Amino acid sequence: MRAETDFGNSWFRSGDMLRVDSDGRVYFVDRLGDTFRWKSENVSTNEVSDVLGQHPHIAEVNVYGVTIPNADGRCGMATIVLADGINEETADFRGLATHVLENLPGYAVPYFMRITPQLDYTGTLKITLSLCSNIYSLREHFLIDVNATYFLAMWF
Question: CA 81, CA 87: separation in Å to the nearest integer?
């Protein structure tokens, strides 16, 4: 246990970027992890998650940017939990792709999708990104074919 004034060895990872001015005042600057850059555009992970989450076959979704070799910025990746009673065989991926393509600008459409049985949360109810660092470390993916409007299963 420490005294209330002993903050020297303490820090809290909130995910927020703050700045301190010369008088010691703290200012909010940005929320880290809520956006990524792709095709010279800022992509809001919350906007993409909201659109994906409107599809009836999706129960939960987490969107984030992943690095692609020889590409500038981060490409969109979505990890989804299918709705109750829906599995990979019964999910309407063509309808999902159509929904996403109709409701998001082209640069914001996630190129990859991973299906998981559940999302993991921190103690502060934020979704963990432990699986999200590199697409090549994941096993099951679905790649969107923008021209054909469907998700194609891929395994790495």
Answer: 10
- 114-153 pLDDT, tens digit per residue, is 888 888 887 777 777 655 433 333 334 455 554 544 455 4
Q: What is the pLDDT of residue 34?
A: 81
Q: Is the separation of the CB atoms in 78 and 97 below 8 Å?
A: no
Token match 């021209």: residue?
147
pTM of the model: 0.66
In sequence order, what are the beta bridge partners of 84? Answer: none
Domains of the chain plus CATH, in order, are 33-155 (3.30.300.30)
**Which bin fits 146, alpha (ψ -120 to 50), beta or left (φ > 0)?**
alpha
What's the Cα-to-Cα distance from 20 to each of 9, 12, 13, 29, 127, rounded to whole Å? 18, 16, 16, 10, 28
- State how far the Cα of 113 lies from the Cα of 101, in Å rounded to an integer: 14
Q: What is the pLDDT of residues 83-120, one digit of tens each?
A: 999 988 898 888 888 898 899 998 898 888 888 888 88
Cα gap 5→39, rounded to integer Å: 47
